[in-house]
Amino acid sequence: MGAGLYERFQVFATAFDEVCGLLDPHLEHPLRDVVFHGVAERPGLLDHTTYAQAGLFALHIALARLLDSVGVRPDAVIGHSIGEIAAAHIAGVFDLPDACHLVATRATLMGGLPEGGGMVTIAATADELAEDLARYEGQVGIAALNTPGNTVVSGPIELVADIGANWAAKGRKTRTLTVSHAFHSPLMDPILEPFAQAIDGLTFHRPTLPVLSNLTGEPADEEMATPGYWVCHIRQPVRFHPAVAHIAPETGLFLELGPDPVLATATQHTLQHLTPDEATTDADADADEGEAGAGAGAERPTPLVTATLSRKRPDVHALGHALAQLHTHGTDVDWAHWFPAGPAPRTVDLPTYAFQRERYWLAQGGGVGDVGAAGLQRVEHAHLPAVVGLADGGLVLTGRISTGGGTGGWLAEHVMAGAVLAPGAALVEWALRAADEVGLRRGGGAGAPGPARAARRPVGCAFRWWSAWPPRTGGVMCGCTPGPTGDVETPVPNRAGYAMPRAS
Question: What span, in angstroms and rounded, lies between the C-alpha atoms of 395 and 440?
C-alpha cells in the first residue's frame, strides 16, 4: 500500500513519515512498519480498523502531496468515510496535526468497541430496504449509498445476515463485507460522546475548496467546520453516489486516491446511471437553448475515471498510468518532477524530419470511371467492375489489378519462389461472383430451385498481363454461362495459388 512510491519519490516518503510521526503516539505499533512490513507477532494487524483507518489517511495525504508536486491539483474533493477527513484537510478545514488527532481518536475509539458487527452490500435502493430496516426497530442502519442500485447496511451480524439472505432469496446480488465492526450504524453510538469531547479543542476553518459532503451528498457549508459535523459523520450514512451525481455535470475527470480502484468503480457505475438531463448543467442547458441550430444539444463527453494505485500493478507503474491518462485528457502534468533528481534526467531533442509512419490499410483505388461509355455494364466489385454480355447468353466480367497499389496492391505480398501468386480463394470468389451475375446458385444451396442436378455449365477465369506502367499490372476476366438447372460448377485449384507471370 504505497511502498513502491515511498521508495521512489522523496516527497511521498516525507509526507508519509510526517503523518506517521503525528499518529504514532496514539498507536501501539509504528504505523509505517504495520503498513509496509506488518508485525510478526500480530499478523493481519493492518486489517484492524485502528490501523486500517490510520494507514489509509497517511496514504491519502502522501498521494495528495505527490500529485501536487507534479502539478495535479483538484478543483473539488469527495471523501468516503475516513477519506473525507483527508479531503477536508486538503480543502483547508483543519491543519495536519489536528487532522491526525481527529483520525487517531476516531480510529482508536472504533477499534476499542466490542466486535461482532456486520455489514453487507445489497443490490437494492435505500427505499427498497426501508421495510427491512423498520422490522428491526433501528438496530440496523444504512451505512453507505455507493451506487444508485447498491446499498450497504450495517448492524448486529445476525440481523444483517438475515436481511442479506432475504434479498438473496429474491434474486438480488449480495456480498458480506469482511469487517470487525458495524461502521456507520447504531453500534457506533457508545463512542459519539467521548469522540465529541476529544475533538472539541481542534481548530476548524471553512473549506477553501469545494468539498462534497458525506452527510448530504452536496457541497459542504460552514457546518463542516464544527465538531458536531464529525460526530454525525461517524454515525450517518455515506452518501457517495449522490455526491458524484451532483458534481458530474461539471466534472471532466475523477481521480481516486487509494490503494485500489474501489471508489473509481462506484463512480463509473453512478455515471452510467445518470440520465442526459442529470448529466447536463444549467449553464449547458442555457447554452444549448441559445445555440439552437448550431450544434445545440450535443452530448457532453464522458468524464475520465481513474485511480492512482491498483493491487494488480506495481505502485510506480499504476501512478504513471494514471498521470498519463490525465495528461492525454488535458491536465497539465509537470513531468520533470517524475524523474529522480540525481542523476538529472537527460532531455532529448525531437527529430526535425517528419515521423516515419507505416500504413496497414489497403489503399483505395482510383475507380474505373464510366464503363457504360465503352458499352459495358457497371458491377459493384473491387476486382471485376465491368461486365459485357455474350451472344450465347453468357457474361464476361473484366477488371484490372496491380501489384503496385490500388485494389490489387496486396498481391505484391503474396509471392512464392519469386513469382507473384493469385490466391486460389480469390479465383473461387471471382467465379462465384460471375455466377451470381447470371442468377445461378450452387447446387443444394439456399435459394436453389431444387436438388442438385448432374447438368453443369462451366465457369472460367483467365489472366492477361500488360507491360504498361506501373509494372506487373494484370487483367482479370471471368466468364459464366447460365445452364438449365441453375447450378454452377466452381473450379477448384489444385494448389494454394496460381502463378502469375512476371511482366516483361
Answer: 12
Phi-psi region of 203 (alpha: psi -120 to 50; beta: other; left: phi over 0): beta
List, in order, residues 6 or more apart from 119 with CB less than 8 Å away: 143, 152, 153, 154, 160, 176, 177, 179, 182, 183, 185
Residues 190, 159 contacting (CB under 8 angstroms): no
Answer whether 123's CB lies under 8 Å from 146's CB. no
DSSP bridge pairs for 398? 386, 477
Helix (H) or strand (E) holding 64: helix 49-69
| Structure confidence by residue, pLDDT tens digits, 16-64 | 999 999 999 999 999 999 999 988 888 888 888 899 999 999 999 999 9
Q: Tell me the whole-structure pTM to 2 decimals.
A: 0.67
Look at 124 and 295; give whichever has higher pLDDT.
Answer: 124
- Indicate the pLDDT class of residue 460, thresholds 50, 70 and 90: low
Please tell me the number of Cα atoms within 13 Å of 472 on its side-chain side. Answer: 20
13: cell is: 516518503
Count how many residues are written for the chain: 504
DSSP for 66-119? HHHHTT---SSEE--THHHHHHHHHTTSS-HHHHHHHHHHHHHHHHTSPS-EEE
